[in-house]
Amino acid sequence: MPARGYHLSKDELGADILEVAMGPHHPSTHGVFRMDLKLDGETVVDLKPIFGYLHRNHEKLAEDIPYLGCMPFTDRLDYLCGMTNNWAFALSAEQLIEIEIPERAQYIRVICAELTRLINHCLLVGFFINDLGALGTPLLYALREREKILDLFETLSGARMMVNYMRFGGVRCDLPDGWLQECERIVGRFPAFLDEYETLLKDNEIVITRSQNVGVLTQEEATNFSITGPMLRASGVNYDIRKVDKYGIYDRFDFKVPIGAHGDCYDRFMVRMLEMRESIKILKQAIADIPEGPIMGNEPRVFKPDPQETYGRIESPKGELGFYLIADGTTNPYRYKVRPPSFVNLTALRHMCIGHKVADAVIILGSIDIVLGEVDR
Amino acid sequence: MSEVNHVLVTQQFPEVEWEEKNSCFIVPSEKATEVVTWLKEHPAFRLDYLSCVSGADYLDSEVKTKEKNEDGKMEVTITQVPAKMEAVYHFFSIEKKTGPVLLKQRCMDRDNPVVQSLTPIYRGAELMEREVYDLYGIHFTDHPDLRRILMWPNFEHYPMRKDYVIPNDYDYEPTPHDEVIERARERRAQLEGGSM
């Protein structure tokens, strides 16, 4: 039986072990997520992540609708990063058929994806500091910046978060007049916010003592646990799918991949801060280079790929977001599998938390960056 | 997508089959641990990162292929494809920056599918294999903690299977309120009975 509330049991030596069900309505679990903790005093002895409260069998739904019909559903996976979800699905589906993506659409995709990365990392850092106990203020600073980018998305696609913007072979609609200038203005001002934010947090003694040497993952462990994204790079592994696969047009931009040295929560936080600066670099280059032209390739009227399998993946803000598609020659996917980054990154949660205090478990979970829409699907 | 040097593997392990169409390895379950450990260590592959574990379900089906015969007429041949279940693994190499390499464990017995778990080698497989077990009912031997993960613990079916029928009326489920409502009804009846 799952623990309800709390429960006392004895370990081998007769000491009391407290079992606590933390969640599913605990504010620091970022949604409906439960951790069944076993505590010896305040130290975590065992932890079981329990989820599925938001499960809607996303993958089964997709088998009954045409390929393009799945596109709006992907927004709901990681509901903070609609654009990158769209792109990952479009990328996999485009591998099924021969389709040329116009230059302008490629640039728009990169701009949208990097803006999404800014949103996500902003929010993550805000919530991370929130979990540390600085309630409200730093998070609201982050939300303020995020709101500006969401306004951009709203003028572009009509929705702030559920964008449903990308299509197989391009994007749904062209940039409105003045959008690029507005985007350039917001991106130009972003480093000032980052400087302010970094001064506020980077050298803060409480942030340092609470997050350094907490939840350490070594290089080997991180690889073995299939960790991806900023978390993997914080552990010192140089692996960014934008650099490795060079999907889209990422080979044209000059940017660096920030790497951490210790693999603790502080490194994960700093890697994200630095990644935002690299995203700004990419955005500036993309805005300067974007050509005029069509935004849709020669998309077939009926999307009906031949029987085959494909796996497409991108570097979403949270890690590797992959779509495994099996086509059977009809208009619907035979199998549609999402490889969600935060679901897989959760595997290491137990390993990272054992031996730390309960309060640290909250920070460690915060540093993984989970979104339950994606974990539960 | 990079080329996979499949000859190296099939020479080392004659049991392993290379499927050209989907460029994947079909590995018998009893050999899976050995093959994967070898792939992880071998300098030509160094598959140190398991990206994705998925399930796939195929029912009995017929495949029609049209071919021109000697007289120049179209001839339709029908081949029977037996039902099967697959656990599909996508591997990448972080060290060599190559991939993906596909590896499939196939079971022809759909009623009782059992495959070898790779969690002892790649700890990242733990939750992904649990998900496949939960949605497809494929059992992974040597998995440390094989439980339902997305569906609730006493759910009986495997919803991603192709022959799963989506219920159009959900069974009545008792809620904690039922007891309270029942007590309230009894109390009301008692009161009404008393006053009359």
Keywords:
heterodimer, A: alpha+beta, Cytochrome-c3 Hydrogenase, chain B, four-stranded antiparallel sheet, three-stranded antiparallel sheet, 15 helices, globular, B: Beta Polymerase, domain 2, two-stranded antiparallel sheet, 4 helices
Explain what the structure shows:
- The complex is a heterodimer of chains A (377) and B (196).
- Chain A is of the alpha+beta class.
- Chain A has 15 helices and nine strands.
- In chain A, strand 5 and strand 6 form a beta hairpin.
- In chain A, helix 3 packs across helix 4, helix 4 runs antiparallel to helix 11 and helix 4 runs antiparallel to helix 14.
- Chain B has a domain of 133 residues: NADH:ubiquinone oxidoreductase Nqo5 subunit (Beta Polymerase, domain 2), CATH 3.30.460.
- In chain B, the strands form three sheets. Chain B has a five-stranded mixed β-sheet, covered by helices on one side. A two-stranded antiparallel ribbon of chain B has the order 4-5. In chain B, strands 8-9 form a two-stranded parallel sheet.
- In chain B, strand 1 and strand 2 form a beta hairpin.
- Chain B starts with 5 loop residues before the first helix and ends with a helix.
- Classes of the chains: A alpha+beta (377), B alpha/beta (196).
- At the A-B interface, strand 7, strand 8 and strand 9 of A face strand 3 and helix 3 of B.
Q: What can be said about this structure in brief?
A:
Chain A has 377 residues and is α+β, with helices and mostly antiparallel strands. Chain A has one domain: Orthogonal Bundle (Cytochrome-c3 Hydrogenase, chain B). Chain A is built from 15 helices and nine strands.
The level 1 CATH classification of chain A is Mainly Alpha
> Looking at the structure, what is the overall shape of chain B?
flat
CATH topology heading of the domain at 6-56 and 85-166 in chain B: Beta Polymerase, domain 2
* Percent of residues in helices of chain A: 40-55%
Q: Span between N and C termini of chain B?
A: 84 Å
Please give the share of residues in helix of chain B: 25-40%
Any guess at the CATH architecture of the domain at 6-56 and 85-166 in chain B?
Answer: 2-Layer Sandwich
Q: Tell me the strand order in the biggest sheet of chain B.
A: 1-2-7-6-3
Indicate the mean pLDDT of chain B.
83
Largest interface: A-B, 34 and 33 residues
Q: How many domains would you count in the coordinates of chain A? A: 1
Strand content of chain B: 25-35%
Strand content of chain A: 5-15%
Radius of gyration of chain B: 25 Å
| Main β-sheet description of chain B | 5 strands, mixed
